[in-house]
Amino acid sequence: MNWYQTTFGNRFDYAARVMVILTAFIIPLSTAAMSIASGLLLIFWLLSGNFGLKFKRIKQSPAALWVLGLFALLAIGLLYSNAEPGATMDTFNRYKKLLIMPIIISLMLSEQWRRYAMRGFMVGMVVLLAMSYMKYFEILTIDTGGPRDPVGHVTSGYTVFKSRIAHSIFMAFFFYLMVQFVISCPRWRWLCLTLAILTIHNILFMVTGQSGYVILICLITLLLYQHIGWKGLLIGILVAPLLLGITYYGSSNFKSRFHESATDFLEYTPGDYENYRGISYRREYFQGALKIIQKSPIYGHGTGSFAVEYKKVADEKGLKPAHDPHNEFLMLTSQLGLIGLTAFCLMLLSQWRASFRLDRENRLILQGLLVTMITGCLFNSLLLNSTEGKFYLILLAIIFSIPSQQEGNNSIEVSGST
To answer: Is the dihedral of CA 197, 380, 396, 160 positive or negative?
Structure first.
């Protein structure tokens, strides 16, 4: 076994670490390529051996244990789900991405590897931003659909690889990162400032993802709180309406989406699908999900049960069926009840508390990631979604892949020798 570990295991361990960087780079670019890269990561991880040390690392990571705990609840939910086996396993398979977090944790990335991985993600975001602007200036002529104005110009289609929801979420977090580096990295200040300006323009004037608008406001408020304190939080609350007002009068896309959303909310009529927009659908899904939860509030209806239970509610009201309430908190509660909701909330809370034990840079990045995730989960099932779920789990694992004092020297030695 020692012969295998020395001859092959360390090389596969090195290859798995490389795949972490590649996967982080691919997150904002290609869902298919990310699936391939994460699959290769799993294969190299299995071939790298040394599982005793790997499982010890996972056991020593509270963040990894909370994620595994939520995964275990979803596995238990398979046993009492009232959905068809195919639908049950389909939903469970979409949550299997949770395992990528402890797998990366077990690799115990050194500080150098972690920085490479975070830079890989940021380079991927720069590529996404550049291609979005190439489409904006009609250098790139990929038609990804989306609404158009009366003249025929695309009004929300300046996305390239992702939906406008995922695109706007990634851009909001990237803006947050760039502002943090403007403050903390004088050497790269002007580059980061330029990217931050391009990113916020992309969010507010080019891509009409409403989730991105809300997350951006929350992240700006977080930035002010982190660097100014409670005064910053108050400033953020006061600045948010001002920023929205400026954007309203300066961006036709934002203005049209605001009016569309306001009309959608005020004139909501159940079943009037010809006039439905995003808010009407979400309002209907939320109401249906709450009725499902009321039927089994403690332990839910089992993994993959949402579509079955929602169809019962929809048939009673003459509404369309749905497979997802577009809210991760409701999605998990409908399947796992208050037990699942509590586990998810405690997992997020433990990560927030753990951020205060990290160095300043990783603490700020983690807090921004959590605000992005929590806010996004109010309007989308981000953990269920392939791209957004892996975005959260992979970056979370990279941040928490901190060698312990006992293993630090050995970890660096292995990564340097292979």
So the answer is: negative
Q: Are 100 and 397 in contact (CB under 8 A)?
A: yes
What is the Cα–Cα distance from 181 to 183, expressed in whole angstroms?
Answer: 5
**Cα 127 to Cα 115: distance, rounded to the nearest angstrom:** 18
Residue 205, token pair as written in the block: 């004037």
- Output the pTM of the full model: 0.88
CA–CA dist 179, 280 (Å, integer): 34
- Tell me the C-alpha distance between 99 and 197, whole Å: 36
Q: What is the pLDDT of residues 305-347, one digit of tens each?
A: 999 998 888 888 777 888 889 999 999 999 999 999 999 999 9
d(CA 336, CA 131): 40
CA distance 320 to 335: 20
Q: Tell me the C-alpha distance between 398 and 403, whole Å.
A: 11
Length of the chain in terms of residues written? 418
Count of C-beta atoms within a 10 Å radius of residue 152: 6
- Give the distance, in angstroms, between the CA of residue 303 and the centroid of all CA atoms in the same chain: 21
> Helix, strand or coil for residue 293?
helix
Residue 290 C-beta-side C-alpha neighbours within 13 Å? 5
The 8 Å CB, 24+ separation contacts for 121-126 are 121/24, 121/25, 121/27, 121/28, 121/395, 122/174, 122/177, 123/25, 124/24, 124/25, 124/26, 124/27, 124/28, 124/29, 125/28, 125/170, 125/171, 125/174, 126/195
The secondary structure element, H or E, covering residue 197 is helix 189-201
Mind giving me the DSSP string for 361-401? HHHHHHHHHHHHHHHHHTTS-TTTSHHHHHHHHHHHHHHH-
DSSP string, 41-89: HHHHHHHT--HHHHHHHHHT-HHHHHHHHHHHHHHHHTTT--S-HHHHH
Determine the angle formed by the axes of helices 252-266 and 230-250, rounding to 10 degrees.
100
And the tokens for 352?
């927030």
CA distance linking residue 23 with residue 27, whole number of Å: 6
List pLDDT tens digits, range 161-188.
Answer: 788 889 999 999 999 999 999 998 888 8
Got the DSSP string for 262-287?
HHHHHT--TT-GGG--HHHHHHHHHH
